[in-house]
Write a structure and sequence with these properties.
With 575 residues, the protein is an alpha/beta fold. It has 20 helices and 25 strands. Helix 5 crosses helix 7. The longest helix is centred in the first third of the chain and has 17 residues. The radius of gyration is 23 Å and the shape is globular.
Length: 575
């Protein structure tokens, strides 16, 4: 008698996540696991016809900031709409646990400044039904969501929890402080955290311009935490670093990363970017990564699957004029009223002449560099040609880039989005990004879902990876099996989740059924569906015929089915 399964996906082109050749096969699912891949004789209680469609493992996004959203929302949007079935949050050293009641405001300020999460959203949405990190995980374990999620112990809350105001003020940690932090990281790992994260970037500031608590933490402090991770023999290390000391010969900051891995024996990953104002730095860091791995040190670069960019608009968090004094009076108006004010020639002249002010000098300089911006468009073009850049367009039109930016923002319905690639698109070329992505010791990541609600919408990078790099790119394109592996098996194994990322019997039944010919991403648009009526950017995709999480069909043709099989993942998993 033929077996009966929970779900059978029929006649699809299976890309199993290993990088091997596609094959025509059925996939049978039973009790949340892959039961068979091949010609399945039995039937499924539910069946999905995948003839002519690709069947892939569910995507794994190792760099998100859903730490808050996971506590108030059952859907990890926008990631779950782009084939993602597991996310790792708690990156870049920021988050909400551990936290004492008196420190909640501090952590919200950090998250508002670093991750562009409005304070009202956190005040209304975060339940704060925890103090310690294990209690935070317990709160998450009670959640039922559309995808699986895992957490890391973030350094900023940890430092404030142990040191109080001294931690906020970035005072040096005492031996007692360091021992306490290490013990709490060990406690978090024992409770199920997948790792520890920190930030050493000067871009990370509160709305008042104050550097976040971790930026100047001494190597001794990080070493103490690394020793704790070594004692636990668990977890990965993740960090963001400016690597400001990098020369052609190397980086003393990177040398510190090597020592952390040597001390802990744990894998480490860091954000790797090609930043135009630091030409060649990415090459030096990749050479350091290669050397570290030759020496037996597991270090990877996290590379974005498309240019790392900020989005500006009249309905978004910032635009090139939003830090000008005269803009204050229009900032809170609804769009129609705002447009009426901004189309006044006197207001235009004032804003073009005014000097902007902002407490984060790095961010201010970036958002005023209008010549390097493009119009994103719909459908969005993330690799536009050089002649579409505002400086080129302005020169051709005989105006300044600032004038052109202003006129574009107030034109039409006022919903123009300016796209400002700050990294991975040097000289309007994706060549350097391609070199980083195709390196043996990098991982495609940096979706940043759950954060940057009004500035960035990169959680759709998974869809972009399958459309741009394998189908639409001019010139060299990559094989589909390779791209699927970079979205599934590679990131899953990097963070210790060896039970997913492949379509192999025994693995977790997370998968996508995709119409690759019609796969596309729409332009991001603002919606007001966060707690307190907060705004965030949403971005839809077409072409995902079905997404399955733990054997349950969660999305059909992009529509949520109501199934909530997603759970907190505690600790590393074996295949």
């Amino acid at each position: 008698m033929a077996a009966q399964y929970d779900v059978v996906v029929r006649n699809g082109t299976v890309l199993d996540g290993t990088g091997g050749d596609p094959r025509e096969a059925d996939v049978a699912i039973q009790d949340g696991r892959i039961a068979a891949v091949g010609r399945v004789a039995g039937s499924g209680r539910e069946e999905i016809d995948a003839k002519g469609l690709a069947v892939t493992p569910g995507f794994v996004d190792v760099h998100t900031h859903y730490d808050g959203q996971a506590t108030w929302d059952e859907r990890f949007s926008p990631s779950s709409g782009h084939g993602v079935t597991t996310v790792l949050m708690g990156n870049c050293g920021v988050g909400f646990a551990p936290c004492r009641p008196q420190d909640r405001q501090t952590l919200m300020k950090v998250m508002e400044g670093v991750e562009d999460i409005p304070e009202i959203v956190m005040q209304e949405g975060v339940p704060w039904n925890w103090q310690t990190f294990p209690e935070y995980l317990d709160a998450l374990a009670a959640r039922r969501c559309d995808i699986d999620f895992a957490a890391q112990v973030p350094h900023a809350p940890l430092r404030v929890f142990v040191m109080g105001q001294r931690g906020v003020d970035r005072e040096p940690a005492t031996a007692q402080d360091m021992a306490a932090m290490a013990a709490l990281v060990e406690e978090g790992l024992a409770a199920g955290a997948l790792g520890f994260s920190t930030s050493r970037s000067l871009f990370h500031r509160t709305p008042e311009g104050v550097l976040t608590p971790t930026i100047t933490a001494a190597e001794e402090e990080l070493t103490a935490i690394a020793r704790g991770m070594g004692r636990a023999a668990k977890g990965v290390i993740q960090l963001l670093d400016d690597f400001a000391d990098t020369t052609d010969e190397g980086s003393t900051e990177f040398a510190m990363l090597r020592r952390l891995v040597e001390t802990s024996g744990r894998p480490l990953s860091f954000t790797l970017l090609d930043i135009s104002i630091y030409p060649g730095r990415w090459k030096t860091l990749l050479r350091e990564v290669e050397r570290a791995n030759r020496d037996g040190l597991a270090i990877r670069g996290q590379v974005a699957g498309r240019p790392v960019a900020l989005l500006y608009g009249l309905e978004l968090s910032f635009n090139p004029f939003s830090t000008c004094p005269s803009y204050v009076g229009v900032a809170g108006l609804v769009l129609e009223q705002k447009l009426a004010k901004l189309r006044d020639p006197a207001m235009r002249a004032r804003l073009l002449a005014e000097k902007p002010t902002y407490r984060n000098p790095q961010m201010l300089a970036f958002m005023r560099s209008v010549g390097n911006m493009y119009v994103l468009g719909d459908p969005p073009n993330y690799t536009p040609p050089r002649e579409q850049r505002l400086d080129a367009r302005a020169e051709k039109a005989g105006v300044t880039p600032l004038e052109l930016a202003y006129d574009l923002l107030v034109s039409g319905d006022g919903r123009t989005i300016l796209f400002h690639p700050g990294a991975n698109y040097t000289d309007a070329s994706d060549a350097n990004m391609a070199s980083m992505l195709h390196h043996d010791h990098t991982v495609m990541a940096l979706g940043d879902g759950g954060a940057h609600y009004g500035m960035i919408c990169d959680a759709s990078y998974t869809t972009h990876a399958l459309t741009y790099w394998t189908r639409d790119r001019a010139g060299e394109r990559w094989s589909l099996p390779w791209a699927v592996k970079q979205l599934t098996d590679t990131p899953a194994r990097m963070i210790g989740l060896g039970d997913r990322g492949r379509l192999t019997p025994g693995y977790k039944a997370d998968l996508n059924v995709i119409d690759l010919d019609n796969l596309r991403v729409a332009a991001p648009h603002p919606v007001h569906n966060l707690p307190g009526g907060g705004r965030r950017l949403e971005q839809k995709a077409e072409g995902y015929r079905a997404t399955v999480v733990g054997g349950a069909i969660t999305y059909r043709d992009g529509e949520f089915t109501g199934a909530l099989p997603g759970r907190l993942v505690r600790g590393a998993r074996s295949a």
